[in-house]
Amino acid sequence: MPPFEGSDISALGLSNTEAEGFEAMLADREQEEVTLEMEAADDSLIVAGASADGAVAAARVSDASFKLIVDYETGGKAFYELVIKSRPIWPKEASGVTIGFGYDLGYVTRDEFRSDWAALPSGDRNLLETCVGFHSGKDPATKMQMLLASVKHIIVAWAPSEAVFKAKTLPKFALMTQNALPNTGLLSGDCFGTLVSLTFNRGASYSKAHNPTTDPKDRYREMRAIKAAMISRKFGDIPGLLKAMIRIWVGTAVETGLRRRRNDEAALFLTGLAAPVVASGPLDFGGDAAAADAGATAAAAPLPERAESVPASQPNDENFWTEVSEDDLAAEAENGLSGGILAGGATWAPDNVQPDYAHLGGNLLQNASFALKAEDLQLLAQLNDFDLSGAGDTVLFGLRGCGVVKDHTVSGGPILMDQRPDHNTPRCIIGVWKRATGTVSVFPASTVPNQAAVALYKRNRSAGNILATGLHSYVCGPHITSRTTPGCFLLRKPDMSKRVVVVRRSTDDLSYQKTDIVDRCAPGDNIHPTFFSTMAGFSSLGCQVVVGTFKEGRHSGPWSELRKAVGFTDNDGEPGKQFRYMLLTGAEARLASKMRIDGLAADPLSQRRLRRLRQGSSGQRVDQLQSKLQLAEPDGQMGPFSTESLHKFQTARQGARGSDGIFSPEMDEALGWGVFSTVGV
Predict the structure, then answer these.
(1) Could you say which of 273, 296, 312 is where a domain stops?
(2) Domain for residue 362, yes or no?
(3) What is the DSSP letter of 7?
C-alpha cells in the first residue's frame, strides 16, 4: 500500500518514493529516540513535559531554527494538509501513532496527552488516548495498524498542532538539549535552535557510549564529539560534525532526507556563529515617507501597460549622467578637493529589508567562499524559469554582492566570496558562461549604482537606480553618456529602442529597501567599464560595470578580458549582436553551489529553496501567476508589467512592508495558489 493512501501527492509534485522517504525519515527519528529512552543512563535527559524552565529554553530558539524543525517534523504546511491530510499517521519502525507536529502518542503519558491536547473535541481526544503508550518498538504491527485504523478519520488541524508544539513539545526538547549539553547559554538562537533540531531527530544522545557488538557503525560518534566541542567551547567544529554524521544513513531509505536536514542544520549553525551585520549609517525602515514610496512609480509619465521599449530619443537616466573616472578624481585632488565627485553617504540595507535578499530569509551567512561551476548557473536558470533556449552559446551573468577569491585562470575554476555591495567599490562580479564547453569566466564588477547616483536621485529625481535581479536582454553597441565607449552591452533592442524593465529608486533615504519606489521604465542600465583601472571606485547610475577603462582608443583591465571572453576582437565588438544577462546574487550562487556539493541539486525539496519567479521568468508557472494576479491575456512572460503588478499585489497585502517583486514557494503556499508543484523547506 502506498504511503498516505488517498492523499494528493501529485499536486505537490511528489512521487510515492519521495513520500515514502519522508515517512521513513520520521520512523528513523523515532528509532533514535526510543533507543535513547530505553538505554539512557542519565534520567535527567528525559523530560516528562513542559515546564517553566522549558519555556525559558524554548524562547531561545530562533525563528529560523523553529521553521527548520517544523518543516522537517511535518514536511511543511502544504505536505501536512495535502498529503498527510492533517490526520494521524504511523511511521512504523519504533514509532507510535503520530499526530500534529511529530507528536508521538507512543512516548507520552495519558496525563501528558490530556493536558497537551485539552483543546481537541472530547470524542477525538478519547479515541486518540487509546493509542497512548503503544509503539512498534515493543508492540506488534497488527496492533499498531488496528490503532491507526480506529483514529485515521480524526482531523488535527495545523493551527492547534502548532499551538501544542510551541507550548508543549518545543519546551520539552529545548530543555532536553540544555540539560544534555554544557555552555548552551553562550550560543546564539540559531546555534541553540540547530542543536534542538538535532535532539528532535536523534534524541539527547550526546553521551551515549559506543558498543561495538551492537553498534558497528558507532552511530553516536559525532553526537559525543558535539558534546566535547560544547565542553571545550570549540563551537566552530559543530557544523562539520553535523555533516560528518551523514555517513550513518548512506545507502538507506532516509539518506536524501537526512542529508538535507544535516546540511541545513550545519548551514544554520554557521549563520549563528557569524557576527551580525550592522549598517554603517542610520537607516529609516518606517515612517510616512517610506510608506508613501511603497509600491509607487516614479513621477515620469506612465508607460503603456505592455510597453517593452521606448524610442531611443526618449530621455532616461543615462541622459542626465556624467561619467566619473579615476582621472577626474586625480584632477579633483590636484585642485585641493576630496571626495566630492563620488560622495553621497549611501549604505547597503540589511538582508531582511533589502529587495534582492529578503526572499532568502534574514540573517544569511556572509563572507563565505564557494566554487562556481557551470552546473550551478544552469541550476539557477532552471529554478528561476529562465528560458535560455534562444540565448546562444554565450550567456552573460552578474552576481550582486560577490567577490573574486581565485579567478577562472586558476585550476579548478573560480572561487568566489558571498559578500554585500556598498556603493563605494566594486563588490560584485560579472561573468561569461560558455554553455557548450561549460566554462565560466568571472571579473570584478559592480551591479549597483555608486554613491553619487543614489544621492542624485534623492536630490532631484533625475538619475540613479538599482536594476532588479532577473533575466535581461542586451545588445552590443556604444555606451553614450558624457563620453562615448564603443563595444559595450546596451539595455536595448536591436533597433536601438530602449528596453523597459523594473528598477528601484529611493527618495526618503540613501538605501534601497523593500519600501522604496518601484519604477517601470527604460533606465539605460548598460554594461560598460567602471572607468577605473583599480578597485578604488566605479562610475554607475545603475549600470552594470566591470573594472577597467577605455582610454586613448583602447579597452583595458578586467573589462577588456571580459570582452575577449565574449569573443570580441576589436573595439566595436559585434554591433547589434544580442546577449542574455542573468542577474542574481552571490548568496543564491553560493546556495546553488552548496546544493551541488551536498549532492542535492536534483532533490526537489532542496530545489524549492531557490525556486523563484521574477523579472525574466517564463513558462507555464508564470502563466498561472499572471492568472492569479488577474492580468488580462496571460502570456507566460514575466515582463516589466507583470513584475510591477506583482509588486503592487505584494504591497497591498495586509501587514506588508513593501515588496520585492519575487514570487517564492513560501508566498505561493501562504496564498494557496498552487503555482509551484514542489514542497520542502
Answers:
(1) 273
(2) yes
(3) -
Tell me, what's the pLDDT at 321? 66
Look at residue 62 and tell me if it is in a domain: yes
The answer as to whether 265 is a domain residue is yes
Q: Residues 557-592, buried b or exposed e (16+ Cβ, 10 A)?
A: bbbbbbbebbebeeeebbeebbbbbbbbbbbbbbbb
What domain count does the chain have?
A: 2
Residues 523, 609 within the same domain: yes
Q: Are residues 494 and 605 in the same domain?
A: yes
Tell me the three cell numbers of residue 635. 502570456
pTM: 0.74
Whether residues 50 and 165 share a domain: the answer is: yes
Classify residue 44 as exposed, middle or buried by CB count within 10 Å of its CB (0-12, 13-18, 19+): exposed
* 206/195 Cα distance (integer angstroms): 11
Contacts of 418 (CB under 8 A, 6+ apart): 365, 366, 367, 368, 369, 370, 401, 402, 586, 587, 589, 590
CA angle 159, 160, 164 (to 5 degrees): 120
Pull the grid cell for residue 205.
544522545
CA 180 to chain centre: 32
Q: Is 406 found in the same domain as 259? A: no
Domain identity same for 418 and 546: yes
User: Pick the residue with more confidence: 329 or 316?
Assistant: 316
H/E element, 592: helix 586-597
Residue 189 one-letter amino acid: G
Summarize pLDDT for 182-213 with one digit per residue, the tens. 999 889 999 999 999 999 889 899 999 999 99
Helix %, strand %, coil % of the chain (to 5)? 40, 15, 45
* Each residue's pLDDT tens digit, 132-145: 999 988 999 999 99
Task: For residue 183, give the CATH number of its domain.
Answer: 1.10.530
Contact between 119 and 171 under an 8 Å Cβ cutoff? The reply is no
Cell reading at 514:
523593500
3-state secondary structure of 271: helix
Q: Is the dihedral of CA 535, 537, 542, 547 positive or negative?
A: negative
Cα 430 to the center of its chain, rounded Å: 21
Expressed as residue numbers, the domain containing 401 is 345-665
Range in 5-9, 264-268, 423-427, 569-573 the model is least confident about:
5-9
Residue 457 counted as domain residue: yes
**How long is the chain?**
681
Whether 374 contacts 560, CB under 8 Å: no
pLDDT at 198: 96
476 vs 434: CA distance, rounded Å = 17
Neighbours of 450 (CB within 10 A): 29
Q: Is the dihedral of CA 172, 175, 179, 181 positive or negative?
A: positive
Q: Return the half-sphere exposure (C-beta side, CA atoms, 13 A cut-off) of residue 279.
A: 20
Which amino acid is present at 525?
D
Q: In what order do the strands lie in the sheet with 402-406?
A: 368-371, 415-418, 402-406
Residue 534 phi, psi (nearest 5): -120, -175
Q: What is the CA radius of gyration of the chain?
A: 28
Task: Please report, for residues 75, 174, 649, the alpha-carbon distance to residue 194 in angstroms, rounded to integers and kept in the order given.
Answer: 17, 10, 34
- Whether residue 542 sits in one domain with residue 437: yes
Contact 314, 472 (CB under 8 A): no
Non-local CB neighbours of 646 within 8 Å, separated by 6+ positions: 625, 629, 659, 661, 662, 663
Orientation of helix 189-202 relative to helix 255-273, angle to 10°: 160
Pairwise CA distance, residues 264 & 41, whole Å? 30
Contact status, residue 417 vs residue 586, Cβ threshold 8 Å: yes
Cell 505592455 belongs to 306
Is residue 487 classed as helix, strand or coil in its secondary structure? strand
In this structure, what C-alpha cell is assigned to residue 506? 529611493
